[in-house]
Fold:
Amino acid sequence: MKRVLLFLIIPVLGWSQSAGEKVFAQSCATGYCHGARGAPAGAPRLAGRGFDQTYISNTIMRGLPGTAMPAFGTTLSRAELGAVIAYVANLNGIANPSINLGPGPGAVGPAETPLSPEAERGRALFFDAVRGFGRCSTCHEVNGIGISVTTPIAKIPTDAAALRALATPEVRTATVDGEAMPALIVSQGKTRALFYDLTSAPPVLRTVEPGALQVAEGSAWRHAAVIGAYNDAELTSILGFLREAIK
Amino acid sequence: MRFLLALFALAAACAQDRTPDGATSNGATGADWPHYGGTQLSWRYSALDQVNTGNVKGLVPVWIFQTGDYAENLQSTPIVVDGVMYLITPRIQVFALDAATGRVLWHYKYPTPRPGKPGGMTFLQNRGVAVSGGQVFFGTTDNFLVALDRKTGVEQWKVSVDDPRQCGCDITAAPLVVKDKVIVGGTGGDAAHRGYLTAFYAQTGRFAWRWYVIPGPGEKGHETWKGDSWKLGGGAPWMTGSFDPDLNLVYWGTGNAGGDFNDQDRLVPGAKGKEANLYTASVVALDADTGQLRWYHQEVPDDLWDFDSAYECVLIDRPINGRMRKLLVHMNKSGVTFVLDRVTGEFIGTFSPLEVQTWISGITEDGKLVGRREPEAGKVVNTCPSAAGAKSWNSMAYSPRTGYVYAPINEVCNDLTSTATEAIEGRFHANGGFTFKLPPDRKTYSHLDAWDPITRKRIWSMPYRYVLLASVLATAGDLVFTGDPEGDFFALDARTGNKLWSYQTGAGHRGSAVSYSVAGRQYIATPTGWQQAITGAQLAPLFPDQNWRGGSTLIVFALPEAAK
Structure:
């Protein structure tokens, strides 16, 4: 009966021991930091230190300023945070930790709802490091990953052809020191003008004096040219990812 | 004034001429300290000799600069050009200082970087800016390369080298400016990440070339990786390279293969004992214009000890058997030091400065490691030196007057564990861990050595009770400067190792001292502040009676005005 109850409670709470151990192994027990199962390594021992639960939560969430201990509160997902806090609490003899992460925005992390296989393929392609600066995330941020050169993706093209033919009226022609270049204007203030030079990937955020920058509407820049690292099937998967990831 | 400067330059030139065996001396700095390694040949040697063995006792602090980043320390190499010092701090403040007085000319503060990948590696450390023409360049904790206007400190451009929330990497090294390009590496050798060097055009920030440490499909060397392990196999070149303008070659040391302590997912079956996981743990020569690989020398094939080759490449010209050779001297993290022909990559010789070395039983005459004591899954294997390195990232120095290299060597061992874990992009992928152990029956755990890289003989050695983790500066005054974690900054006689001067700076040393002159007065500048994170703070618990102090302060010494 007891065993049955345990199996019931843990999934309900969502902080399973094995999940916590996995997060700990991946994020904490690393060569330069803590040892496996809280043993001492590069960073101090965590097992059997008599830490209370508040201290464990605060340290994991906020880090320890002035040390190598980072804050995980904004980087691990809530599920991962709960699991790893419970795990470290267990290592300190707290058998049934009550984890309350408090209110607040959801942390960046793996999607809470799993993606379809097609969208998962698209996700991998969107962030595909093998494609270097040819990957989508060179200019686009989705769910906290990627470089936000552009404004967040709002409208998702219907198919690969539409993605290639995407109208980009925001790309204009900047002229600096007599050189014209495709540009995304970020700001034109009284003392500084900021724009992305899109001549080559990755885009370069330039800062110039306002008088040194001339801007004209229109540009020969085409979205099709910068997504050339992907074929139609890959772009279709990427669109599938965007449809599921961007709510 | 102009006459004084000219006289001074002449004196410096004369000082350079007195070299052993007719060695050339174009790696020496003069009034400026223009590059991370002094010059692009990375000697960390100043031709200034106003301060010398005869008068070094008279050195006094003349100005002190507090950066404000006290929680992190100060690891950067100050760059000095035309009487202005450019100093970067761990939280990416850049200061332009009057190099004679410390007065702030301008101050730049990088916005708070966005956080990196959880479980990845991002370090609040920065080891220096690069200065060229009218620009100052540096990398950031969130992987941007930034250019400032050298006169005003105003940002000119910035470009994202990689997404820290994906790659688990960041930039801590000083960039290397080569002709019209800025070349920068990154960390991530212990994260699941494929390391690279990237070059950008200095004027515009536009991409010029990228060289991946791990060859992609169809490229030579790709076959040394098992399955898809090449995609996340590490090798990040996380320090600063060197440049030979005559050969137009850039030299860089690469990081270790990942996962560090277990090769199960990356070693091709049957490859044990052969070259493996190219081009990790190697010294490489790249065409400066294109980034094309010209030659490589792998120091630790199938590394299993976290023995990077990421450290400085010291480019020297010395005769061997009567023939002048262009050489490259490179110390692997294991301490094993390789002397190569830098035209061809030909192996010339090797030596190990360690007194306690158990990870291998020796090295053959042609530079092959033998008797490898490898970590094993399910066991604890004690090896020396430790994953913190016989030497850390802090640089050695070379004096053309003595012909010796000067390096701080740590005698610390570790218990290694080895596990095979899945590589998840950007997450730490050490595949095991280490616990530092002091070797038994010793009273000292480090030494500052002078080695002749040609005869491969140790000339002198200064033992030290704890560990030494600061770079070395050599000067034409036949002095060698470095600092220790207890806070002493000291000068040794470059020929004998005798300690001639010491000054208690109040905080431990983990940075890189430089020398320069303004208006004919020679200055020696050293960063201070013991490290709060990797390596330094990790080694400190080995000496529980010690309390090495942090901080983030630059202290500048000179002879009193009347004495110079």
In short: Confidence is low (pLDDT under 50) at residues 1-24 of chain B. Residues 2-563 of chain B form a domain with the Methanol Dehydrogenase; Chain A fold (CATH 2.140.10.10). Helices of chain B lie at 2-17, 164-167, 536-539.
